[in-house]
Amino acid sequence: MANAHNRKRAPADDVSQEHRPYKKIKSRGRLYGPSNFPPEFWDNLSKVPLTRRALRELDRRNSTRPAPGPAAPAVYTTDLARFARHGGPDLRRLRGCPEPKGAVRTMASSRSTSSSRRTKSAKSTKATDVASKTKPTSAYDDAFELHAIDNGIYPEGYEHPDGRRTPEPNNIDQLLLELAATRASLSPSQFPDSAFRDFKKKHKTASESTVKYNIIPIIAGNTNIPNKRDLHFTNIQSITGGLTVKAVPDFFDGARLGDVHPKIRNEGEEGNLNKLIIPTKHTSAPVVPNFFLEIKAPKGGADVAQRQALHDGAIGSRAMHALMNYGKEEPAYDSNAYTYSSTYHAGTGTLQLYAHHVTPPAVPRGRPEYHMTQVKAFAMTNDLNIFVQGATAFRNARDHAQRHRGSFIQAANARARQSDVETSPEAEITVVIADKNEESTDEFVDCEDYHGSQAVGTEDYTAPEDVEEPALPQDLCAEDEEPSQGLFVSLRPQVNFPRRFYI
């Protein structure tokens, strides 16, 4: 037994797992220190929220405040006992005053205690210096929404200090009817209960990448609308003066670059909209984005997704408004929603749809105001019926965003071509040979008044009987279709006379 006991005991030179030396891993946060927003961001806030970054900014400002100069020495009585009984010197002026740098410690203490304190002080000073580094604010901070409000970007249900609530778009009723239009691809024969059970099963191991590539495609269905994922909007001009991060939608729809007239999209052209409608310098990326999706995994914050959608929707609304007013002397506002955003939270299986619109500045020479309105919300994992309703609204919103986008691009392109004709040094005069007895009428049609129709290469859906479908873009077509020659207006410059010339 003694031998067995000795065999179980580890030898003296054996290093056990308990006492094995280990390498201390420094956390990234301690190594680099936390970053913060620039001082201008905090100075421009109407109200500073109590957040960690706000406290770090307060510490940084306190650390840079100069120490107060020495006060004039007061004359005290030599009777120290009586002086102490009355409370000693008045130290109220020292409250909140930082310790002078390089101050000599005069208190008697052991050498180890003094060294420990100096080490902690040095670490604190280093952390404060690193924390002074700044970065733009993001939707992950509570101050982001307040900063957006200060810049005229109002979230869903926002109530102004004077009691006004953020308005709904003028076309909200029409929009709700359009979102509810049924789709053949979501009929019971096309999307049975087994497909819904498979959709729910995918939520059990849902990471954010799983949601993007396995769950969202079931909701979105098959379509040929140009789209992109996880693309930084590096070319878009900031709405908030550069104090917010660049938008990075998880998913967005847009038009092809070639659909937009070069005079509108190219930098260097007079009145170009490059910084308002071109998200990035990549030529393959969609332009004029006006449909967005923000995704969060089960552990992600739904409030963060909503703030990201607020930022995305304002960018899309501004792009659509810029196209609508391209070439016009004074901007017009119709308070209609032409931009949509959505959020999907995999933890609850909740899909939310929002509409965004622009209204005129509230004060003279102010900036336009951007509003976010929730139009639908669905618990997609609840049952098949609710899933079909949510997927229907999501797909219809994408289709109608494409229709609005194409319509505005078409109108802006027509104005760009018209301006080319007006500035062209050589204009072709059209002479009509006709019978003199024929009644003289004006038959010239302006490009802006021309309207055509074309089928979008997406899934079929049935609109309500009382809904008038908006005109589709003339220069967009499905990938497997050839553009119809009858839908395009001749680009030859012409001079339109009020009456015909007869020969």
How would you describe this protein?
The protein is α/β, with parallel strands linked by helices and 503 residues long. It has a domain at 165-414. Helices cover 33% and strands 11% of the residues. It has 14 helices and eleven strands. It has helices spanning 2-8, 28-32, 39-44, 52-64, 80-85, 111-131, 143-150, 172-179, 193-201, 208-220, 262-265, 274-277, 302-324, 384-423, and strands spanning 153-154, 182-183, 227-228, 251-255, 287-296, 339-345, 350-359, 369-379, 428-429, 461-462, 494-495. It has a seven-stranded mixed β-sheet, sandwiched between helices. A two-stranded antiparallel sheet has the order 2-10. A hairpin with a 4-residue loop joins strand 6 and strand 7. The longest helix has 40 residues, at 384-423. Mean pLDDT is 74; it is low at 4-33, 103-115, 118-132 and 427-503. Residues 280-402 form the DUF7924 domain. This is DUF7924 domain-containing protein.
Summarize the structure.
With 503 residues, the protein is an alpha/beta fold. It has helices at residues 2-8, 28-32, 39-44, 52-64, 80-85, 111-131, 143-150, 172-179, 193-201, 208-220, 262-265, 274-277, 302-324, 384-423, and strands spanning 153-154, 182-183, 227-228, 251-255, 287-296, 339-345, 350-359, 369-379, 428-429, 461-462, 494-495.
Question: How do the strands and helices of this protein lay out in sequence?
Answer:
Elements: H1 2-8, H2 28-32, H3 39-44, H4 52-64, H5 80-85, H6 111-131, H7 143-150, E1 153-154, H8 172-179, E2 182-183, H9 193-201, H10 208-220, E3 227-228, E4 251-255, H11 262-265, H12 274-277, E5 287-296, H13 302-324, E6 339-345, E7 350-359, E8 369-379, H14 384-423, E9 428-429, E10 461-462, E11 494-495
Parallel strand pairs: 1-8, 5-6, 9-11
Antiparallel strand pairs: 2-10, 3-4, 4-5, 6-7, 7-8
